[in-house]
Amino acid sequence: MSIMSNSLIDNYGRVHRDLRVSLTDRCSLRCTYCMPHDFNKWLPSETLLTANELVKVIEIAVTQGITEVRLTGGEPLLRPDIVEIVSRINSLENPPELSMTTNGVALAKVAKELAAAGLKRINISLDTLDWERFKRLTFRDRYDDVIEGIAAAQAAGLAPIKINAVLMKDINGDEAIPLLKWALNENLNLRFIEQMPLDAGDAWTRKNLITADQIFDQLNSEFELTPVEDRGSSPAEEFYVNGGPATVGIIGSVTRPFCSACDRLRLISDGQMRSCLFANTETDLRSILRNGRLTESEKREDIIKAIGLTV
What we know:
- The chain is of the alpha/beta class.
- 30% of the residues lie in helices and 19% in strands.
- The longest helix is centred in the C-terminal third of the chain and has 15 residues, at 296-310.
């Protein structure tokens, strides 16, 4: 663990360049692999970082070597100040490359504004092309809204647009090929993600898991897949489809962990900084930001130290 000039380097020699920023823990869907359909144990609003606090941490992180920021949730579009946050991050000196992961439900309303504010790329979660399955998976009748959101993102010029899909046995496990055909037809970048044990209701079981190997075999039965070289720090293994240039990605989060190449830090919506999604420890930045006894200079120094302790 060490901090070098414009670099965050951990004990394993990994240089951290990517900061994932959760803007809220709330979500407008109740995807079965993420949380119970009646989940409502949200963080109190006063514990969430304000726009000012978020931008301050991001600005400091950029000075320490962060070059990419991805806004996530929960669902980031539930933040009423989302366009302001994007604009302010993009207005920083040496702004990071800025992207977002969203469920797409509210995207049609703000895609144009987000692009104008400086958002470059977007990932949209969509696990099925079947309206009835979507309702069963998410406990919400919002399929059409997601499709409209994807179209709005395309019209706004956000690129590339990546579609994230989680396949599960006996639910949507037969949709690998239809999803890829649809993505190719719509000029979208599709990525399949193994179901991870992230659900707030502890409902994850390995028996529902469709592995990266199984996804590859399904796709390879219909398409010719050849590996893309130089994966770098990307969590996805990319494959050219029928010789390219189109690709499809497979993220083997469970069966093919990619920890050795990971370059991410994570800022949770309540101000906790983690080195990993599954980290057992975290560093409290909110207490520094809200410590009235510290000067702004002292806060900045303490935040730099705290970020360094996270890597």
